[in-house]
Structure formats: structure tokens, C-alpha cells
Amino acid sequence: MRQLKTLSAAICAAACLTTPIWAGGETLSNPEAKVYFANLVDGATVTSPVTVVFGLSGMGVAPAGTEKENTGHHHLLIDRPRLGEGEDGADELSNGIISDEHHLHFGGGQTEAVVELTPGTHTLQLVLGDLGHVPHSTPIVSDVINITVSE
Length: 151
Fold this sequence. Notes:
By secondary structure, the chain is α+β, with helices and mostly antiparallel strands. 16% of the residues lie in helices and 38% in strands. The chain has a single domain, classed as Immunoglobulins (Immunoglobulin-like).
């Protein structure tokens, strides 16, 4: 029995060291939830304006300010580090996502957007925010994709 407890503790410790620890706001998320780009893939070449369709499974979409379990609204991060990384990374995980040209909010419950992007390579990431624009605990984020906007 003692060996089993020691083995369990070792497995737990190893998992903690290899699994990223995400912070987030106070609003719980469905651990099965996923947000993704429904119409774009990594490496795609597109023209501007770019239509971005937000995919979501395991949770629902509700406008900002709506307090309803297992819901949130979309944010599109453009040309910036992955959520939680960079200069403001820790702040945005616990205090909310700012709104500027690199952080687009879709607090009306929108599920797609048309975005003007300059020619060249751009990074995109989707993040689901809770009623107050704070990522859930555990954050629901897409992979970061690279797209090229042709002239």
C-alpha cells in the first residue's frame, strides 16, 4: 500500500511538471470545450478583408455581461504573442482582455467577423471570454495560426 501511495505521488508530481498550469478568471469552463477557426487553417493564403468564422464546441455563446453557466463570447487576437505570454500575459489571464487593434472583442455574441488586414503574414488566435471579458478558468483558447494576406 505504501508503494502505491509513493507511486501515485510521483505520477502526480510528474504530471504537474509536464502539464502547463493555466490561470484564468473565476468563471469555470467546461473542460471539454474547444474554440477553433471554422474556415481558416494554419498557413492559409487569403485576401483582405478576411472573413473569420469562430468555431466553438462544448460551450455556448452569449453576449458580454450575460451570466449563464458554460457560455462566453469570442475575442480575436491578431499579431501578438499567444494568450498568457508576453508583457501583459499574466494580467490578461486574470484581469481581462484589453480592446485594441490586436485584441478584437465580439461582446455582442457574434460568431464571425470580417477583418481588414494588410498584405503579409499575420498570427491569429481565438479566446473565449466570460461575461466581463476575462478568460475562463481553465481558458478556452485556439491554437495560434499563421495566415498570409496576398496583395
